[in-house]
Amino acid sequence: MFSRRLPWDLPRNPLSTLLDARHRAGTPVLDLTESNPTRAGFTYPAEQILAALADPRALLYHPSPRGLLSAREAISNYYSQRGREVPPSNILLTASTSEAYAYLFKLLADPGDEILTPRPSYPLFEFLAALESVKTRQYPLRYDGAWHIDFDALERAVTPRTRAIVVVNPNNPTGSFLQPAEFDRLQALASNRGIAILLDEVFLDYGFAPTPVPSPPKALTFSMSGLSKIAGLPQLKLGWIVADGPGHPEALDRLELIADTYLSVATPVQLALPTLLSLSTALRDQIRKRTSANLAWLRSITAGSEFQALHVEGGWYATLQVPRTRSEEEWALMLLRERDVLVQPGFFFDFESEAYLVLSLLTARDVFEHGVRRICA
Q1: What is the DSSP string of 156-174?
Q2: CATH classification of 14-43+280-376, choosing from 1.20.1250.20, 3.30.930.10, 1.10.3720.10, 3.90.1150.10?
Q3: Is this model's pTM higher than 0.90 or not?
């Protein structure tokens, strides 16, 4: 009766099962995995956010497949403040970055075609692709003191059915930025093979150093972002696609037809977007202050120890390399069972080797410091 797009009977992993048991027993847990900014103790301008969502114009419905012009102009202004000129005509709104991926997979790929995704990275691409009847093939990121794309492996992964290459910039969870030379080489590869680049830029505002500036694209390129990370408002469900490079006007026309089929973006959040983006600066400052402080403390406490905090350039996460005296799963289970500390094992993100733990730098300072001390102990 049901489709075979997803493995519907996925069993719960041992870490989730143990965590549920700890919660049922009422055991306090130091959660070093918190990725929801609305639960991380930041100060939001609540009255202004709610007032923006109460715009009376939201009582009228004017369908706009690409998104209201006022909202797209606000996004254009957001990019302009960062030194990047993006015309409103190049922007299409979605309900989330996940929906943006779904639209782009529909646009670029037929059933059975392939999308290349990075490894390690966020473990969502296989599900998003499967729901569109598209396959994923992974290309590796390598670490030699800094993360970089293995271009030899990437080129070998390209097949006649490859339709796009996904790049998360900065990557989640490695926190590595796409460097200008990598961007140029990636663009040359995509242009020569006639495939598109999908740039996931949701963490782009959270660099620990100046963000690398790429050159203009030579291949059809789609950038994605949204309110979830930029404004710390994942519950408001608004993202967008920026199309650029050769062929982008035709691509946008086709994306508009896809968007017109769903019309999923709510009017209230579109009307509120100019205000929400203007208010987001203070929240981003809070997040950057906390993530920078947590990262500096992590580096200091692990310096010279058997634990190594891998180099990270941006984002909300840090990767901790731990001794291979046990597997990542055993590390995570032991820390939760014996130290009441919750971390994510590297294999959740498809790290190719052991042993790595992924920590959220968004975690409240006292929780983060206590949790890391228990790990190092």
Answers
A1: HH--TTEEEEEEESS-TTT
A2: 3.90.1150.10
A3: yes
